[in-house]
Design a protein that fits this description.
The chain has 7 helices and 11 strands. The chain is of the alpha/beta class. It has a single domain, classed as TIM Barrel. Strands 1, 2, 3, 4, 5, 6, 7, 8, 9, 10 and 11 form an 11-stranded mixed beta sheet that branches. Helix 4 links the parallel strand 7 and strand 8. The termini are far apart.
């Protein structure tokens, strides 16, 4: 079965150079073409990475978008970049910031509303659109009152309709997360991703931390992408951590940067 390496928590910030970002993703995920490469770009409010790639790609490579079926009301959620004879599968996603200041990711869906809606409403909106919901760990956002909200969301959900995200900044020596440990014991899937900050140097991180899994038919079409998203959240499909989290010193620098507001819109 085809081997897929996926970074499910990628960002393409406006000040990142597109060519550098694409090349980093390709080299970090599979420099030798030994696996299919994929990223999910979780756009923040005001971003449309698919539109940006389409505008700029002709200068450096090519871009093919898998269009929805004729007559479908769904949006395009999947495209393929070709860059220096290598390919990168790009899946559309969204990052919402809820009224409670909790990040909610939607994989395989386009943004449908502004930030600021209640967390449960955002979760239901993503599910209704056919996407996968991920609650990602973030520095300082799963403690105190917000930590209680996340715990309650887990209590109201099941591993069939919600996954949790771990990110590179937490590092293997980073701050522990009681919620992630509790979720793992409850059979929720914990999916790693890079979650780069808006710092220019973080553009090189895309694809360096994520998940590796085998899929029956690989990628190449919208339907196969939707199958992959279901495999990611399935507790019975073997998944391995791909790459590495930030080194301890780097993680500390990025953690401090995020607390200063350079890396997050939800504080």
């Amino acid at each position: 079965m085809p081997l897929i390496r996926l970074d499910p928590h990628a960002h393409l910030y406006d000040h990142y150079r597109l060519a550098d970002w694409i090349e980093a993703a390709i080299l970090n995920l599979a420099p030798d073409n030994d696996a299919e490469r994929a990223v999910i770009i979780v756009d923040r409010q005001g971003q449309d990475s698919f539109a940006r790639i389409e505008r700029e790609i002709s200068e450096i490579g090519s871009w093919r978008v898998a269009q929805p079926e004729s007559g479908s009301n769904t949006d395009a959620i999947y495209g393929v970049v070709t860059f220096k004879d290598k390919t990168l599968n790009v899946i559309r996603g969204v990052q919402y910031v809820s009224a409670e200041k909790i990040e909610v990711l939607g994989w395989g869906v386009k943004r449908e509303c502004d930030d600021g809606a209640p967390c449960q409403d955002l979760i239901e909106k993503i599910r209704a659109s056919g996407g996968v919901v991920c609650l990602p760990w973030s520095p300082g956002k799963w403690i105190g009152k917000r930590g209680k909200i996340v715990n309650e969301l887990l209590r109201l959900s099941s591993s069939d309709n919600l996954v949790l995200g771990d990110i590179a900044i937490r590092s293997r020596f980073g701050p522990p997360s009681v919620i992630l440990s509790r979720a793992k014991r409850a059979s929720f899937q914990i999916i790693c991703g890079t979650d780069p900050l808006p710092r220019r140097e973080d553009a090189q991180l895309v694809g360096s931390y994520g998940v590796e899994l085998s899929a029956p038919s690989g990628l190449g079409s919208r339907d196969r992408v939707l199958e992959l998203l279901q495999l990611i959240k399935s507790p019975v499909i073997p998944k391995r951590v791909w790459g590495r989290p930030s080194a301890p010193v780097e993680a500390l620098e990025r953690f401090i940067s995020s607390l200063r507001g350079r890396g997050s819109v939800a504080r």
